[in-house]
Amino acid sequence: QVQLEESGGGLVQTGGSLRLSCAASGVTFSNYIMGWFRQAPGKEREFVGYIGRSGGSTTYADSVKGRFTISRDNGKNTVYLQMNSLKPEDTAVYSCAAARRWTFLTQPSAYDYWGQGTQVTVSS
């Protein structure tokens, strides 16, 4: 049974930082490309970024480029999202996802498994 479990969300002030973690179980973690998405109330799910299987390749949405960093530790079956210089518009539920294939990775439909998400709230 595949499980992805996010942690590390919370309330932070504008300009602050948070690090989210996503722990995977039930999969061969290093076989999957890992993505992060977010969804704010009343909005569609939005691509944040993804990281390749070995961690050597990352891609980010323009809205977070230069502020967010994705990394992974295949020995711990965990992917991380370091978020710096947070803004109120970053407030959302953040979810990690796992994809087998390297295709259309900015789209939620590319991902095979999803976590439940963790809330991030940035106060102004």
Head-to-tail CA distance between termini = 40 Å
Kindly provide the radius of gyration, computed on alpha-carbon positions and rounded to a whole number of angstroms.
13 Å
Low-confidence stretches: none
Rounded mean pLDDT is 97
Overall shape: it is globular
Question: Portion of residues in helices?
Answer: under 10%
Strand portion, in percent?
A: over 45%
Order of helices and strands: EEEEEEEEEEE
Specify the structural class: mainly beta
Number of E-type strands: 11
Total helical segments = 0
Task: Give a brief description.
With 124 residues, the chain is mostly beta strands. Helices cover 0% and strands 49% of the residues.
Structural features, described:
With 124 residues, the chain is mainly β. It is 0% helix and 49% strand. The protein is built from no helices and 11 strands. It has strands at 3-7, 10-13, 18-25, 33-39, 46-51, 58-60, 68-73, 78-83, 92-99, 113-114, 118-123. The strands form 2 sheets. Strands 2, 4, 5, 6, 9, 10 and 11 form a 7-stranded mixed sheet that branches. Strand 4 and strand 5 form a beta hairpin. The termini are far apart. The relative contact order is 0.31. The model has no long low-confidence stretch (mean pLDDT 97).
Provide the fold topology.
Blueprint: E1 3-7, E2 10-13, E3 18-25, E4 33-39, E5 46-51, E6 58-60, E7 68-73, E8 78-83, E9 92-99, E10 113-114, E11 118-123
Parallel strand pairs: 2-11
Antiparallel strand pairs: 1-3, 3-8, 4-5, 4-9, 5-6, 7-8, 9-10, 9-11
Q: What are the key terms here?
A:
7-stranded mixed sheet; mainly beta; single chain; 4-stranded antiparallel sheet; 0% helix
